[in-house]
Amino acid sequence: MVLLSPLLLCSTLLSTAAFASSKCKSTPNDLTWPSNEEWKSLNQSIRGALIKTAPAPSSCYEGNPFNSSTNCFDATKYWTYAAYHSAWPESVDYSIFTNNSCLPRGADGYTKGRGCSIGALPQYIVNATNEQQIATALRWATERNIRVVVKGTGHDLSGRSTGAYSLSIWTHNFKHIEHQPEWPLPDGSGTADVVICGSGHTWGTVYNAVHAMNRSVVGGEDATVGLGGLIQNGGHGLLSSHYGLASDQVYQVTFITADGRRLVANNKQNADIFWAVRGAGGGQFGVVTEFILKTHPVPKNLITGGFSFYQVSASKAGNISWAALAEVASSIPDIMDNGLTGTVIAMTGSSAMALTGLNHTSPGVVASVSLVGFNMTTEAMDRTVQNMTFRFANGSSANMLKVVYQSSEAYSYWAYTKPDFLSSTSCGSSSLMSSRLLGRHELSDIPMADLTTYLQQASVSQSATGSMLLFGLQGGPGPASTPEDMRGSVLPAWRSAYVHAMSYGASLNATADPSDALASGAHWYEANLEPVWRNWAPRTGSYMNEGNAFSSTWKQDFYGENYNRLLKLKRAYDPSGSFFVWSGVGSDMWEYDLHSGLLCRID
Ligand SMILES: Cc1cc2nc3c(=O)[nH]c(=O)nc-3n(C[C@H](O)[C@H](O)[C@H](O)COP(=O)(O)OP(=O)(O)OC[C@H]3O[C@@H](n4cnc5c(N)ncnc54)[C@H](O)[C@@H]3O)c2cc1C
Ligand SMILES: *[C@@H]1O[C@H](CO)[C@@H](O)[C@H](O)[C@H]1NC(C)=O
Ligand SMILES: *[C@@H]1O[C@H](CO)[C@@H](O)[C@H](O)[C@H]1NC(C)=O
Ligand SMILES: *[C@@H]1O[C@H](CO)[C@@H](O)[C@H](O)[C@H]1NC(C)=O
Ligand SMILES: *[C@@H]1O[C@H](CO)[C@@H](O)[C@H](O)[C@H]1NC(C)=O
Ligand SMILES: *[C@@H]1O[C@H](CO)[C@@H](O)[C@H](O)[C@H]1NC(C)=O
Ligand SMILES: *[C@@H]1O[C@H](CO)[C@@H](O)[C@H](O)[C@H]1NC(C)=O
Ligand SMILES: *[C@@H]1O[C@H](CO)[C@@H](O)[C@H](O)[C@H]1NC(C)=O
Ligand SMILES: *[C@@H]1O[C@H](CO)[C@@H](O)[C@H](O)[C@H]1NC(C)=O
Ligand SMILES: *[C@@H]1O[C@H](CO)[C@@H](O)[C@H](O)[C@H]1NC(C)=O
Ligand SMILES: *[C@@H]1O[C@H](CO)[C@@H](O)[C@H](O)[C@H]1NC(C)=O
Ligand SMILES: *[C@@H]1O[C@H](CO)[C@@H](O)[C@H](O)[C@H]1NC(C)=O
């Protein structure tokens, strides 16, 4: 934060605005902020696509102060639905990042009497339908020192698709999609089967389209998640352990720079920005309007299987369940090398009763292992499950554990992955989490006692109801075998990672001042969880889309050895800092204060 000394404030009253504009991004309180006439002329130059922000729940407030066009009933009913937020130009899933400025009654974070204001929502939004509008608006905002944010769906878990006093570029309507089975590769080396997609698609709309093409693509597991943020920051899903991350599938992007240039970027031209937007780039360098993505054959089938376990006797204080979890964790690299993917959920305390179905807590940890395989048989899945559980359920302690087997089932790929846009209903006030990538070294090659201790330490929680540790089996052979020229700037640790581990220990006070709530959550992680990851996995890092944007080691965590090269590109493509996101490249030269809304340079 820029602290203006009282002396400076008094003695330079007139030049405060000029001072602010040189240090801080412009705000409506500054003399430099464009007049209504100027906004009107921007609107004309982009064919009327400019929207003045009207928070959807404005209709829940006396007199509908922003004249929202939706009714309060819908805003209230659908507030937890991801699909609802993506349909509105300004709305985002996690309202803490908007400073909880305009919420329907009863929503997480709602405080009676706070009223409805723009808060940290953008001031204006470009409802873009063509690249020219984006280019014009970006150049216009950059020339006027106005902060720019980019919103696809608004699902970002670190609030990177909203920002106070900003102009938002909404890519929602970039929805063209086309199959080209023999697209000529830019380097002339042959052709590839690709799908050409507008960046406003969600994975659900892409999956529907590629299903009709009898192909598959690597994307996220939730239908409502968008291409823009998921691909540009890495992206994992059901197929990532086979074919690599979503950012490993990109042959070309179309990109609009902060000064309004349109670039076609691939391995042959504009290769530097092409590299940057493949893994480390969401909302930081410019706006991607189109992705050209590799497609794959549809898997012949999809087999599910798994098991869960809990400790039935309190003897040994739950250590038997922790040891069992360690056995599961250590077997993950092998089963992934054998073609499996899936999730492991480990919970403690009363929250774990959801996994056991019991109405009392179990000692230690309760775990549920859900596996997915492709092109295989249910018998092969059963053998893997037996083998995994034999590692901990075969000895003298076995009778202290209850293992519940899930019967293996075969699905068609489509039956299992058919998009459901209304299933994602977890939106709320906040989403702070911490995560770490774990490789064979961290999972299989350390002493079992150490692994057990790390698992216990990573399951810390601020809440009395217990903790949740989630292992996504999303790295493995796919990212490891991705050819060099398909690897962008994604954190190199992904190449040796098997597991993306997420832990959700902090409990944020939903009704506190958002800036304070985030700061105290960040402080809790820094004191309790980040040190565990750093100790367990000092050389890996974290997945930027599902990580702790407030970690003190974010440069190393999210970018690793790529950071300096990315910083050069940030300076080249966005020299005046139109784009800012928390823990973005070069973001340490800025301070974004959610309380004042000011975004100021601190170097
Ligand atoms: C319900 C849910 C399920 C999830 N499941 C998965 C999963 O299976 N796999 C996974 O990897 N992640 C998953 N995530 C995390 C997800 O990758 C991030 O939330 C990601 O930010 C979503 O991208 P988006 O474009 O939908 O969101 P947005 O909030 O719209 O954008 C996210 C970031 O990307 C930027 N951005 C978006 N579009 C563009 C563009 N065209 N040009 C430039 N910048 C752009 C934004 O500025 C912002 O910084 C999930 C998240 C949620 C909420
Ligand atoms: C932009 O122009 C369109 C069409 O004239 C209009 O509907 C819209 O309200 C204008 N936007 C703003 C912010 O004035
Ligand atoms: C509010 O929006 C409606 C259309 O949704 C429009 O007819 C009306 O003029 C607007 N009122 C104000 C005060 O802007
Ligand atoms: C954010 O909310 C707090 C109240 O919690 C308020 O004091 C502050 O002015 C708000 N800031 C912005 C930018 O809306
Ligand atoms: C955005 O633009 C499209 C195309 O012009 C239009 O159909 C849609 O209604 C607009 N959305 C909003 C929220 O203005
Ligand atoms: C779909 O593609 C596969 C090859 O990937 C092919 O074997 C199959 O016949 C195709 N199905 C249809 C309906 O075209
Ligand atoms: C499934 O098998 C086909 C060949 O029959 C192969 O091309 C494809 O990569 C396999 N898919 C997965 C996810 O293993
Ligand atoms: C359980 O494990 C912890 C270390 O992780 C150890 O200190 C404790 O003594 C063990 N308890 C029993 C009953 O074995
Ligand atoms: C829950 O516990 C109570 C006793 O505390 C018991 O009566 C009841 O049957 C239990 N319910 C289930 C589903 O186990
Ligand atoms: C069973 O596990 C052992 C190691 O624990 C491994 O060597 C073997 O390949 C596994 N077999 C199957 C069918 O997974
Ligand atoms: C249980 O399985 C593990 C791993 O396969 C093995 O090392 C151990 O000897 C087995 N114990 C018993 C009692 O069979
Ligand atoms: C949450 O913050 C509110 C507002 O500052 C405060 O009144 C309340 O006591 C806090 N709750 C907790 C559990 O700290």
From TrEMBL:
Domain FAD-binding PCMH-type: 118-298
Pfam families membership: BBE, FAD_binding_4
PROSITE patterns the UniProt entry points to: FAD_PCMH
Top-rank taxon: Eukaryota
Cofactor list: FAD
UniProt keyword annotations, A-Z: FAD, Flavoprotein, Oxidoreductase, Signal
Record-linked SUPFAM superfamilies: FAD-binding/transporter-associated domain-like
Signal peptide segment: 1-22
Keyword Ribosomal protein: no
Single GO MF descriptor: FAD binding
Family according to the record: Belongs to the oxygen-dependent FAD-linked oxidoreductase family.
Protein name per its UniProtKB record: FAD binding domain protein
Organism lineage: Eukaryota, Fungi, Dikarya, Ascomycota, Pezizomycotina
